[in-house]
Amino acid sequence: MNLSSLGALPFLWMGWSFLYPHVGFCEGAPFKQEDGITSNAHRQSCWETEEFTVQQECTRCDDYTKKTESECTFSGFVEKIKCKHSGQVEYRSCRSAAQEELKFWKFEGGMLSFGTVFAVLVLFRQRTLDRRAEYKVLQQIEAI
Predict the structure, then answer these.
(1) Residues 137, 129 contacting (CB under 8 angstroms)
(2) Which UniProt keywords are present, listed alphabetically (predicted)?
Protein backbone atom coordinates (compact mmCIF):
# COMPACT_ATOMS: atom_id res chain seq x y z
CA MET A 1 0.00 0.00 0.00
CA ASN A 2 1.54 3.32 -1.01
CA LEU A 3 0.82 6.94 -0.14
CA SER A 4 -1.05 7.71 -3.34
CA SER A 5 -3.58 4.90 -2.77
CA LEU A 6 -4.35 6.06 0.77
CA GLY A 7 -4.62 9.73 -0.01
CA ALA A 8 -3.21 12.52 2.11
CA LEU A 9 -6.26 13.04 4.32
CA PRO A 10 -5.38 10.49 7.05
CA PHE A 11 -1.87 11.91 7.35
CA LEU A 12 -3.16 15.46 7.56
CA TRP A 13 -5.69 14.44 10.19
CA MET A 14 -2.97 12.77 12.27
CA GLY A 15 -0.80 15.88 11.96
CA TRP A 16 -3.65 18.19 12.95
CA SER A 17 -4.66 16.05 15.95
CA PHE A 18 -1.03 16.10 17.10
CA LEU A 19 -0.58 19.88 16.72
CA TYR A 20 -4.01 21.11 17.88
CA PRO A 21 -3.56 20.72 21.68
CA HIS A 22 -0.15 22.41 21.59
CA VAL A 23 -0.85 25.33 19.26
CA GLY A 24 -4.23 26.45 20.58
CA PHE A 25 -5.73 28.09 17.50
CA CYS A 26 -9.25 27.98 18.85
CA GLU A 27 -8.86 29.34 22.30
CA GLY A 28 -11.47 32.04 22.54
CA ALA A 29 -13.82 33.39 25.10
CA PRO A 30 -17.11 31.60 25.53
CA PHE A 31 -20.26 33.27 24.35
CA LYS A 32 -22.34 35.17 26.84
CA GLN A 33 -25.77 33.74 27.27
CA GLU A 34 -28.32 36.50 26.96
CA ASP A 35 -31.81 35.10 26.95
CA GLY A 36 -33.66 38.35 27.52
CA ILE A 37 -34.92 37.34 30.97
CA THR A 38 -34.33 39.99 33.58
CA SER A 39 -33.59 38.96 37.11
CA ASN A 40 -32.52 40.62 40.31
CA ALA A 41 -29.25 38.68 40.25
CA HIS A 42 -28.00 40.55 37.16
CA ARG A 43 -27.64 44.24 37.85
CA GLN A 44 -26.64 46.72 35.21
CA SER A 45 -23.12 48.08 35.63
CA CYS A 46 -22.56 51.82 35.78
CA TRP A 47 -20.29 51.76 32.71
CA GLU A 48 -23.20 50.47 30.63
CA THR A 49 -25.35 53.52 31.36
CA GLU A 50 -22.98 56.43 31.99
CA GLU A 51 -19.67 57.86 30.88
CA PHE A 52 -16.52 56.42 32.40
CA THR A 53 -12.75 56.71 32.45
CA VAL A 54 -10.31 53.82 32.37
CA GLN A 55 -8.13 53.91 35.48
CA GLN A 56 -6.14 50.75 34.78
CA GLU A 57 -5.52 49.29 31.34
CA CYS A 58 -6.41 45.73 30.40
CA THR A 59 -4.43 43.31 32.60
CA ARG A 60 -4.39 39.54 32.98
CA CYS A 61 -6.28 37.97 35.89
CA ASP A 62 -4.45 35.56 38.16
CA ASP A 63 -5.66 31.95 38.52
CA TYR A 64 -7.68 32.55 41.68
CA THR A 65 -9.43 35.64 40.31
CA LYS A 66 -10.34 33.80 37.09
CA LYS A 67 -12.32 31.29 39.12
CA THR A 68 -13.97 33.69 41.55
CA GLU A 69 -14.70 36.93 39.68
CA SER A 70 -17.28 36.86 36.90
CA GLU A 71 -15.46 39.60 34.96
CA CYS A 72 -12.32 37.43 34.74
CA THR A 73 -14.06 34.24 33.68
CA PHE A 74 -15.14 35.62 30.30
CA SER A 75 -11.83 36.66 28.74
CA GLY A 76 -9.18 36.30 31.46
CA PHE A 77 -8.46 40.06 31.35
CA VAL A 78 -10.00 42.99 33.21
CA GLU A 79 -9.71 46.75 33.23
CA LYS A 80 -10.49 49.10 36.10
CA ILE A 81 -13.15 51.70 35.30
CA LYS A 82 -14.44 54.72 37.20
CA CYS A 83 -17.89 56.03 36.30
CA LYS A 84 -18.14 59.83 36.08
CA HIS A 85 -21.62 60.49 37.52
CA SER A 86 -21.87 57.89 40.27
CA GLY A 87 -18.15 57.75 41.09
CA GLN A 88 -18.24 53.95 41.32
CA VAL A 89 -15.09 51.98 40.59
CA GLU A 90 -15.79 48.71 38.79
CA TYR A 91 -13.99 46.10 36.77
CA ARG A 92 -15.05 44.93 33.34
CA SER A 93 -13.91 42.19 31.04
CA CYS A 94 -11.69 43.23 28.15
CA ARG A 95 -9.50 41.77 25.44
CA SER A 96 -5.75 42.22 25.52
CA ALA A 97 -4.32 43.69 22.32
CA ALA A 98 -1.08 41.75 22.81
CA GLN A 99 -2.99 38.49 23.26
CA GLU A 100 -5.09 39.15 20.15
CA GLU A 101 -1.93 39.90 18.15
CA LEU A 102 -0.36 36.65 19.37
CA LYS A 103 -3.44 34.70 18.29
CA PHE A 104 -3.29 36.39 14.88
CA TRP A 105 0.36 35.42 14.34
CA LYS A 106 -0.34 31.85 15.50
CA PHE A 107 -3.08 31.67 12.89
CA GLU A 108 -0.83 33.13 10.19
CA GLY A 109 1.95 30.69 11.09
CA GLY A 110 -0.48 27.79 10.97
CA MET A 111 -1.81 28.83 7.58
CA LEU A 112 1.73 29.23 6.24
CA SER A 113 2.59 25.75 7.55
CA PHE A 114 -0.51 24.17 6.05
CA GLY A 115 0.13 25.94 2.74
CA THR A 116 3.69 24.64 2.67
CA VAL A 117 2.56 21.08 3.45
CA PHE A 118 -0.06 21.17 0.71
CA ALA A 119 2.43 22.64 -1.79
CA VAL A 120 4.85 19.78 -1.06
CA LEU A 121 2.02 17.26 -1.44
CA VAL A 122 1.03 18.77 -4.79
CA LEU A 123 4.64 18.61 -6.03
CA PHE A 124 4.95 14.99 -4.86
CA ARG A 125 1.70 14.01 -6.55
CA GLN A 126 2.60 15.83 -9.77
CA ARG A 127 5.98 14.07 -9.97
CA THR A 128 4.29 10.71 -9.36
CA LEU A 129 1.78 11.35 -12.14
CA ASP A 130 4.54 12.52 -14.49
CA ARG A 131 6.50 9.31 -13.83
CA ARG A 132 3.41 7.19 -14.51
CA ALA A 133 2.71 9.03 -17.76
CA GLU A 134 6.35 8.69 -18.85
CA TYR A 135 6.28 4.96 -18.05
CA LYS A 136 3.10 4.47 -20.12
CA VAL A 137 4.61 6.35 -23.06
CA LEU A 138 7.76 4.20 -22.87
CA GLN A 139 5.65 1.04 -22.84
CA GLN A 140 3.72 2.23 -25.89
CA ILE A 141 6.96 3.06 -27.73
CA GLU A 142 8.41 -0.37 -26.90
CA ALA A 143 5.24 -2.05 -28.16
CA ILE A 144 5.73 -0.51 -31.62
Answers:
(1) no
(2) Signal
